[in-house]
């Protein structure tokens, strides 16, 4: 049935169009990368103590290569950059990438534009673990060696995030696979239960605990250290790399689960793996910074509006844009009301909500 | 040898027999239509034939081999299914949607082969001019044709000798289509059968079935009531029994096929 004469001609045309498309996509991703780089540089320079971009460059090359590039900077700038701003920045990048990609994966998997990482219970589960540990942890801490307490809250958050996700996923198991609508409903139910327990903990907590707890519920990068960074990053990087490799499956599932099966893909395995990896990435992120709303919901939408629905592009795009959004939001959080540090969750929702509404209106041609 | 041979196939769900000991064979180079009232088990039968659903009893032989012995990825190279789910979760260009049909071939062919298969399928389904359009903005008929192209490119390219071992399943492909598009889709199906492919279609309209099929499988309440060449299987008495309304056959000198209409 192939029309032999026209094939070579058609092939060249198609290949050319394909190359054009690929080049445009690469340029778009590159632009996303540059945007992230720019926001990073802005973020490390601005703060209570201003550091010039030249000084940043000088300190970093000095540390990384040992070469003194001859840009003058004080000891104070170096300490602030290396011990405060850099770990905070890098943790923010990791967390933003994790939340952005997790949101994109779940929206694709559930074929639902409203899905976000909080929906499968991982965020509320992590909050449950962290809050319980903040309020009741004192008695446990007494038996542990000093210094261990630092890891206890993130660890409890991470574990309980995974646990709640496992319960949600377990509830959605049916004889012939996972029922996505039950999964979403179970997520809503488990979120309610977690919220109730968090409320109970708030009720019995003292003033100091309530402050800690609040910060955790609203999310903040203020406590970022190299230790936290080192703890969270391996899980995030592994989970994201594995999620990227599921792009093809996520593309196929745009057509529906049955159609993905017709294409020969192991739908059940891939579904299970996606949820597990999202729980891992989000759990690792949220356990370090607390719950940061909106990134997982908003970022994938912005990426799809700009880059289309191909997950080979949407996932890296969401990682880069998620990181950028967190970096900028954190910059705002720590500079709007100097010297106070606003919770980043507040900034995200304050700025993100209206921005998202604007995007939606624009898409419908209202603005 | 038939492409598909079914022996003693039964499916039971929640205590109800969806398919009750069905025997059936399907030939390459023919259009086989599965016909019957709502709930007769047409789509269930199609799911079993295409390997999406495991029967409780009996077996399906595809090219002489039990369907259960095929890996999902291998099966996808030899049979394609146009299902009833037609909606896309997020907007995507038509070109990208059709390309999804090449997923089973990733790592097995060159990008060039992929692109040629995509182009050829788009030509057959007459959607070449829509390549850069957003799928979500298409009309129902255009969407269905895009899905047809996607399903088709999954099986391309084939040498004439290979066509006979490949199967195309279309589950109610005429749903939501206007008259001219219904006939266009079925004409495509006939063309593909002529090229040597086995084509299995689930349909609702007896007259579309008579006009386009070589072979008809008539189902009622999970059983195959009659199967055979179209003229034989589509006997008005059998149709009356299956649909529960009296049917009769009307001939017209200008029309190649008889028309089946309710008698009252």
Order of helices and strands of chain A: HHHHHEEHHHHHHHHH
Tell me what portion of residues of chain A adopts beta-strand conformation.
Answer: under 5%
The largest sheet of chain A, given as strand count, sense and whether it forms a barrel, is: 2 strands, antiparallel
Largest sheet of chain B: 6 strands, mixed
Assembly state here? heterodimer
Secondary-structure-derived class of chain A: mainly alpha
Strand order of the largest sheet of chain B: 6-7-8-3-9-10
Spatial shape of chain A: globular
Strand composition percent of chain B: 25-35%
| Annotated CATH architecture of chain A | Orthogonal Bundle
Number of domains of chain A: 1
CATH class designation of chain B: Alpha Beta
N/C terminus separation of chain A: 49 Å
- What is Rg of chain A? 23 Å
**How far apart, in Å, are the first and last alpha carbons of chain B?**
43 Å
Largest interface by Cβ-Cβ < 8 Å: A-B, 32 and 39 residues
Question: What is the helix tally of chain A?
Answer: 14
Give your account of this protein's structure.
The complex is a heterodimer of chains A (367) and B (264). With 367 residues, chain A is mainly alpha-helical. Chain A has 14 helices and 2 strands. Chain A has a two-stranded antiparallel ribbon. Chain A is globular and about 65 Å long. Chain B is of the alpha/beta class. Chain B has one domain: 3-Layer(aba) Sandwich (Rossmann fold), CATH 3.40.50.300. In chain B, helix 7 links the parallel strand 7 and strand 8. The radius of gyration of chain B is 18 Å and the shape is globular. The mean pLDDT of chain B is 88. Classes of the chains: A mainly alpha (367), B alpha/beta (264).
Which SSEs are present, and which pair or pack?
The complex is a heterodimer of chains A (367) and B (264).
Chain A: H1 7-45, H2 53-65, H3 75-109, H4 122-141, H5 149-171, E1 173-174, E2 177-178, H6 180-204, H7 207-218, H8 226-244, H9 247-253, H10 257-262, H11 267-289, H12 295-307, H13 311-335, H14 344-363
Antiparallel strand pairs in A: 1-2
Helix pairs in contact in A: 1-13, 3-8, 3-11, 3-12, 3-13, 4-5, 4-6, 4-7, 4-11, 5-6, 5-11, 8-11, 12-13, 13-14
Chain B: E1 4-13, E2 16-26, E3 31-35, H1 42-50, E4 57-62, E5 65-66, H2 72-78, E6 79-82, H3 94-99, H4 111-124, H5 140-153, H6 160-163, E7 167-171, H7 179-194, E8 198-203, H8 206-212, E9 215-220, E10 223-229, H9 230-233, H10 236-243, E11 247-250, E12 259-262
Helix pairs in contact in B: 4-5
